[in-house]
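To: structure desk
From: M.T.
Subject: fold request, one chain
Message: Could you run this one when you get a chance? Sequence is below, nothing fancy, just the single chain.
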Amino acid sequence: MPKFSQNSYRKLNSCHPDLVTIFEEVVWMRDCTIVEGHRGEPTQNEYYRLGKSQVKYPDSNHNKHPSMAVDVMEYFPNKPHLHWFNKDEIHDFANYVISLADSLYENGEITHKVTWGGDWDMDGDTTDTSFFDGPHYQLYKPEDK
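Reply: Done. Structure tokens follow.
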């Protein structure tokens, strides 16, 4: 059974409890690593400068306390362990995460729903996004959409 490293848990624990619940469930069935949880001002602004983020500090969901966003990648047993550029694998993992999160929400185990950085408008079409951020998951309240 997969489990998070101490480093992944440290990053995950900087996130909203709903994200902790979701990814503690995900890791039981799909090995994954937490790339980033909360993000401070220097890192956020550097990511913006490099084009890795569309917003400056403090406008990212990663900048909130606790973080309302987390970056997660599926972890594969053989090197390279992270398949950063395989959109099919990233999409497959995202479908699993979103499906599990929807189930947790419907069962009242979490209070937010999740959107993914490969389908920001959640219409199922991953080709209509202007900024693909495959590892990114963030919380939202359905009434806010």
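Reply (cont.): Strands lie at 32-36, 69-74, 113-116, 136-140. Let me know if you need anything else for the meeting.
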